[in-house]
Amino acid sequence: MMAAPGPLAACEIRELRAADVPAAAGQYRDLFVDGTWNAAAVGRSLDGPGSFALLAHTAGQIAGLVVARAVADECEILWIAVVASRRRSGIGRGLLRAALGRAAGLGARTAYLEVAAANRAAIDLYDGEGFRRCGRRPAYYRGAHEGAPCDALVYKKELGSGEGSPPQSSPDHRTNGETKAS
Ligand SMILES: CC(C)(COP(=O)(O)OP(=O)(O)OC[C@H]1O[C@@H](n2cnc3c(N)ncnc32)[C@H](O)[C@@H]1OP(=O)(O)O)[C@@H](O)C(=O)NCCC(=O)NCCS
Questions:
Q1: N or C: which end of the chain has fewer CB within 10 A?
Q2: Is a pLDDT exceeding 50 seen at residue 168?
Q3: Mean of pLDDT values over 131-153
């Protein structure tokens, strides 16, 4: 059963380095998806130019991560996930905002991402954060969602000067210097 929405617990967001990935993957398997965003893929993605990843902690425990890439004036949210037991408490929103703030600080003016059409939770998150649909890739995810092909929806957001603000409902949200919007 889905946990009820609740206030965001104190959440600290910091840089994830490639060296952190094996430990995070060992402890928190629900942050990684076999075949696509598994630990090896996340680790590899961090080698690319403009790539970065942020890790959310609550009460000293890893609670979620976001992987993104910012090149020139565009960025792409490559993967975002929250530990299943910590979902629906604002951590995904906090991570997304932190990543967009970081990308804006690197010069990105437009953010893109793609999401499975069946992924209601993620779609609602992106809609609520100002992303708008700009494309559809039919049957893009093959067998990843209950064995059936699933369309990918492409979403886009123009980044503004206020990008990276912590969620209003999270007075305890803290970021270190590297993840603050500039
Ligand atoms: C998508 C995901 C990252 C959201 O993280 P989260 O911490 O639970 O999200 P938040 O608590 O910050 O929720 C922010 C908003 O997203 C939407 N949302 C989140 N979970 C939802 C759900 N299960 N059903 C409907 N809407 C949901 C809501 O609009 C929510 O705002 P509200 O709580 O004020 O109604 C999380 O569900 C997850 O890790 N899913 C598995 C991995 C995944 O699918 N990643 C997306 C890849 S594109």
A1: N
A2: yes
A3: 86
User: What is the set of active-site residues?
Assistant: 114, 126
63 by DSSP, 3-state: which?
Answer: strand
Strand residues in 126-166 grouped as ranges (E): 132-145, 148-158
pLDDT in tens, 117-137: 999 999 999 999 999 999 999
Ligand 1 proximity of 115 Cβ (cutoff 6 Å): yes
pLDDT score for 23: 80
User: C-alpha angle 36/49/126, rounded to 5°?
Assistant: 50
Q: Is 173 in the pocket of ligand 1 (CB under 6 A)?
A: no
Asked whether 172 and 9 are in contact (CB, 8 A), the reply is: yes
Ligand 1 centre from 119 Cα, in Å?
A: 9
Q: In 2-112, which ranges are continuous DSSP H helix?
A: 21-27, 39-45, 91-105
The predicted pLDDT at position 170 comes to: 43
